[in-house]
Structures are given as structure tokens and as C-alpha cells.
Write a structure and sequence with these properties.
Elements: E1 4-10, E2 13-19, H1 26-31, E3 37-42, E4 46-52, H2 56-68, E5 83-84, H3 92-99, E6 113-126, E7 133-140, E8 146-151, H4 156-159, E9 166-176, E10 182-190
Parallel strand pairs: 5-6, 8-10
Antiparallel strand pairs: 1-2, 2-4, 3-4, 6-7, 6-9, 7-8, 9-10
Length: about 190
């Protein structure tokens, strides 16, 4: 994740808009480049600017320098979850209750849950895509509760994660109806 500046040029003047990310206040960042700008205004997370097209490369260099002084962890992806949920609470009853909120879509997104101290007990590749889809078995480190799930397009770092290493997971809960009704998790990320 990174701040974004977008602009259009007309008669040698670029006018644009800025959107930032959590932890990066664009006002002081842009003020460091004030001599290159014709105008700038905004607040921590958004703003507008104008500059001569002749100053575009210098602005890019100035912003690169400013961003290089910031803590690099600010640019790491942030995984958001709607609720932290202990793994033992992932039940068939929860999966069925979540179905009552369907249909899911842009205005009604499936909730994302997060659980900590989860051990990967087993993971097996499925499908023909070279093994990045994984069937997983997870266990709560404290209570021993076992939950099965899937991780579609699992990143290599997950595929190479050792068995029984505690991780935190972000996932959605679904009801698997193959042979019986059973809660399963659809992994979105691990860390």
C-alpha cells in the first residue's frame, strides 16, 4: 500500500489529487516539495495540488526522498478483519447463521474473521494449478479445536510454512455441504 497522486495536464499545468494511507500525513510530505508546486491543499489523508509540467520529475524525486525517510513498515499490507474470533467459535451454527445474511456483494461483503495461535496441522495441494490451492486442517493452540478449510491461490510463504507452527489467520466462514453440513474456513491470509 502506498499513497497515490493522480493528475491531468492542460496547457503545461498538472492538476491532481492525492490519497494517502494510514500513518502517512501528506501535508508535511507535500510541504517538503512546496517550491515545486503552484498550489497545494488538503489534510492528512487527501489533498489537491497543481504544478508546472516542467517540475513533474523533480516532484517525483522529492517524494521518493521523503518516503525513503519514513518507517518502511508503513508501506506493508495491512489485513483488516471485522472480528477477532477464537477458532473454537467457528461452528456449523455460525456458518448457517452467516448464510442468512446472503446475498453477499459489494454493499454487503462477507465478514472477515481473525484468529490467533492457530497451528497448521495438515495442508495438501488440490487441483491442477501447480499446487497453490490448499486443503488445510487447523487446530486452536489452546483448546485443540480442529477446523478444516481451503486456501485458494495460497502464497509460497504459506505453502512453505512448517506444520504445527502457530500463526494468525484471516478468513471467511462457510458451510461445506459435501457429505454433511460442516463449518469450514476459507483462508485469505496468514501471518
Amino acid at each position: 500500500q502506498v499513497p497515490v497522486l493522480v493528475g491531468t495536464e492542460h496547457n503545461g499545468i498538472i492538476k491532481g489529487s492525492i490519497r494517502s494511507i494510514d500513518g502517512i500525513n501528506m501535508v508535511p510530505v507535500m510541504q517538503q516539495s512546496n517550491s515545486l508546486l503552484l498550489s497545494f491543499g488538503g489534510h492528512e489523508k487527501a489533498g489537491g495540488f497543481s504544478l508546472s509540467q516542467d517540475n513533474l520529475e523533480a516532484l517525483i524525486a522529492s517524494l521518493d526522498t521523503a518516503f525513503a525517510t519514513l518507517d518502511s513498515t508503513l508501506f506493508e499490507p495491512v489485513q483488516h478483519a471485522d472480528l477477532t474470533l477464537p477458532l473454537p467459535n467457528v461452528t456449523t451454527a455460525l456458518a448457517l447463521a452467516l448464510e442468512s445474511f446472503e446475498p453477499y456483494g459489494e454493499q454487503n461483503q462477507k465478514p472477515l474473521f481473525m484468529s490467533h495461535d492457530v497451528c497448521i496441522v495438515d495442508k495438501q495441494p488440490v487441483g491442477r494449478n501447480g499446487g497453490s490451492h490448499m486443503r488445510v486442517v487447523l487446530k486452536d493452540s489452546h483448546k485443540g479445536t480442529i477446523v478444516k478449510g481451503m486456501y485458494f491461490s495460497a502464497p509460497q510463504e504459506f505453502i512453505s510454512t512448517p506444520i504445527n507452527k502457530p500463526v494468525s489467520i484471516v478468513y471467511q466462514v462457510e458451510c461445506n455441504r459435501w457429505k454433511d453440513e460442516e463449518a469450514q474456513i476459507m483462508l485469505q491470509s496468514t501471518y
